[in-house]
Amino acid sequence: MLRIGVLVSGSGTNLQSIINACKSGELNAKVVIVVSDNKDAYALRRAEHAGIPTSVVMKEDFRSRLDFDMEVVRILRESRVNLVALAGFMRIVTPEFIRSFPGRIMNIHPALLPSFPGLNVRQKAIDHGVRFSGCTVHFVDEGVDTGPIIIQAAVPVYPDDTEEVLRDRILRLEHRIYPKAIELFEQGRLRIEGRKVFIKGMKKQEDGYLVNPPLDS
Ligand code: GRF
């Protein structure tokens, strides 16, 4: 069974979706440790409620980003994780962290990468006037939100959307695609070649499309 370590900083709704998928049997996996850099993160309460061990690692207790990351690596190794899932973890991990789990770190980002990397991306998408945004699960490389893309989901964006409305529209799909990305990983169906992730046995949607506004509007 796949042993997942989840890194969080905030409310942990993505963590919850992964926990739920493990509990329901949809995922042949188990969240074995939740690490937070924020002792007040609601995600920690979700983990405790699910009986999952937690660990809080505070940046002020470390002299450098590297020391911080090496402590997190130590915790994850102690829990013998096979996959590290960043789920609203508000820190950029060091190259040393990435090298500790090669090809085994995923992140979820609330935009259609490579558009809108970084922070406050829903507001940026609204302000730019795009017709679609969405979410992306990708492997983590040494850049910010630049790693090979595993799965994306698109949602329409409207000029009068508020950040909150768009956030919820995207979040509903985040909760579906993160467990799916983990499932594909667990099934050994993902192969990274350069920037691309090939998925074994993937169905193609040759005629699939999305248009916003709809062509009949
Ligand atoms: C999500 O929007 C995720 O895409 C981003 O941070 C947010 C975390 O939300 N990386 P939650 O803590 O999972 O509720």
Detailed description of the structure:
With 217 residues, this protein is α/β, with parallel strands linked by helices. The chain folds into two domains: 102 residues, Formyl transferase, N-terminal domain (Rossmann fold), CATH 3.40.50.170; 95 residues, 3-Layer(aba) Sandwich (Rossmann fold), CATH 3.40.50.170. The protein contains six helices and nine strands. The strands form two sheets. Strands 3-2-1-4-5-6-7 form a seven-stranded mixed beta sheet, with helices on both faces. It has a two-stranded antiparallel ribbon with strand order 8-9. Strand 4, helix 4 and strand 5 form a beta-alpha-beta unit. The longest helix is centred in the C-terminal third of the chain and has 24 residues. The chain is globular and about 55 Å long. Bound molecules: 5-O-phosphono-beta-D-ribofuranosylamine.
Entry summary:
The chain has helices spanning 13-24, 42-49, 65-78, 95-100, 121-128, 163-186; strands at 2-8, 29-36, 54-56, 83-86, 105-109, 132-139, 149-156, 190-193, 196-199.
